[in-house]
Amino acid sequence: MPHSPYSDALHRQDGSIATVLHDVARAHRILELEGHGDMSMGHLSYRDPHGRGLWLKQGNLGLEEVTGEDFILIDFDGNVLEGQGLRHLEWPLHSEIMLARPEVNVVGHSHPFHSTIFGATDAELGPYVNHAVWFAHHGVPRFTETSHIITTQPLGTAVARTLGPAEAVLLANHGVAFVGRNVKEATLSGIFLEKAAKAQLALAASGLGHAPPSAAETIEKHEVIYPERAKDNYWMYFNRKLDALEGRAGSGALRGYEGA
């Protein structure tokens, strides 16, 4: 695994940060497995526990290439405080969501195929499959002010406003953003959004009649199928899946792997 010139500083400063960034790096690679890869585009961030800003994946790396040493620390105005490497242009998407949502500690942005196609429609994501039930309380809003990348703080603020209290937002003709209180929740939000969008697109293409369950039933179902122990179970499952593939590849990251 490559050694970063600032990895030692990370550990000296707060070993817990390095531990979390190890998991955030794994989340990138898991998301690649689950259809979120798009060349070197896509990134997750982690709120710095000392209030300095956020740790953002370096640019010019595919999701499958990210290790725990591939992050830079930026403040909420985008100034690089620690680390080396390219700062992603869309850093304001992360910073403004974190400023608007104090409980959110992990933000992701990617271009998963089915969610991006679904986001280009005017359809509402419905609870047609269990994965969509993850979003029962707030749904998945769609940001339509621009199809451009989110490179300014005002645009980041607008995305955060559209996201509101939800777990994810569709960025029309662009991609998605998803959030969580921790790495586990953010990763599951990204995975379940792509699975739900894929299922609804297939349902629409079938031409068969369909209707969603009621909102009340969907919320009750959410409480039954997504308690904390289930979230832990799914997070561990995706980690085992990653370990199995990386073990077969003989690599610490999925370099060269093409996601499904």
From TrEMBL:
Keyword Lyase recorded: yes
- SMART domains from the entry? Aldolase_II (SM01007)
Q: Which residues form the Class II aldolase/adducin N-terminal domain?
A: 22-201
Q: Name one Pfam family in it.
A: Aldolase_II
Q: Does the keyword S-adenosyl-L-methionine apply?
A: no
Q: Which InterPro entries match?
A: Aldolase_class_II_sugar_metab (IPR050197), Aldolase_II/adducin_N (IPR001303), Aldolase_II/adducin_N_sf (IPR036409)
Keywords, ordered alphabetically:
Lyase, Metal-binding
Under which name does UniProt file this protein? Aldolase
Q: Which organism is it from?
A: Salinactinospora qingdaonensis
